[in-house]
Amino acid sequence: MSTAEPMPGQTLRPGTAAAVAEPTNVLLPGHDVPLGRYTTVRRLLPQRQLRTVGAWCFVDHFGPDNVANRPGMGIGPHPHTGLQTVTWLVHGEIRHLDSLGSDQLIRPGQLNVMTSGHGIAHSEYSPPDHPPTLHGLQLWVALPDAARSDPPGFAHHPDLPVLAEPNHSVTVLVGEFGGVRSPAVVHSPLLGAQLWLPDGGEARLPLEAGFEHGVLVMSGAAEVADVVLSPGSLLYLGIGRRELTVRAAGPTRLMLLGGEPFDESLVMWWNFVGRSHEEITEARADWMAGGARFGRVRGDDADPLPAPEMPTTRLKSRDRHGRTVG
Predict the structure, then answer these.
(1) 156 annotated binding-site participant
(2) 321 labeled binding residue
(3) Angle at Cα 51 formed by Cα 24 and Cα 126, nearest 5°?
(4) Is 124 annotated as a binding residue?
(5) pTM of the complete model beyond 0.90
(6) Domain coordinates of the chain in residue numbers?
(7) Pick among 1.10.260.40, 2.40.30.10, 1.10.3470.10, 2.60.120.10: CATH of 16-259
(8) What residues does Fe cation bind to (predicted)?
């Protein structure tokens, strides 16, 4: 997925949410961002008060949208560096194409993970004969320095582990939860898990105390850690929690994100995650030149999306608290 905002991470500055090193409850409203020609998303991360949750550095929630008589998602060829994209659907279908030759249709309950490494290009479309509703998440994971120059890759996981309890279920997208582990390969200690309460009720979730966590509601509403949460906001929970209580009056779907605090400083600009202004400038030039670094998205004849113009000021590397580094 491509962000329409040239500098999604550069607006962040030091704030209480990112700086707290103990359990906390900070409710962070998202904002709407147009994506492609037909889709608007609620951007929940990054924010001014919070750059990352673990290595999760970008969270877009889209839908539920009625796309019965509309094209649905349509995002043409665009590049990525220094990250993994994680795509999760509740309703609808999306076709993923990339410069490795991957051509994969993702459906609800399945997971796509694309690793950009040094550089990859991809596109995402709703197929012509698509379901009437589109609803899901697109997330980015910042790659640590040791992995961010690796070759690109793509993996599709049609089956994920599900923990079934009497009144709720937990699907483990990334990492380990409740003694089961997702098959998805990531490069830092990380958790992504969907909680589904079909009839409401209460769920008590065990947490890794060394992780920081955040929660978002995809549908319904819930009281999470004594905070009322509905779609459109991210609840940051800090670090040090060993358990999380969720209560819902009716059908509710939530996403729990967590991970060890990501201590590497980042420069985020357009679709690139790097470490310096020079890296971003080079990536933009390579994309606009159409060279071998990103390649062409196979099976997609659409024109590649042009990169925005570079800002007139120098891009700054920032730590997870939003502080300028170097």
Answers:
(1) no
(2) no
(3) 110
(4) yes
(5) yes
(6) 16-259
(7) 2.60.120.10
(8) 78, 80, 122, 124
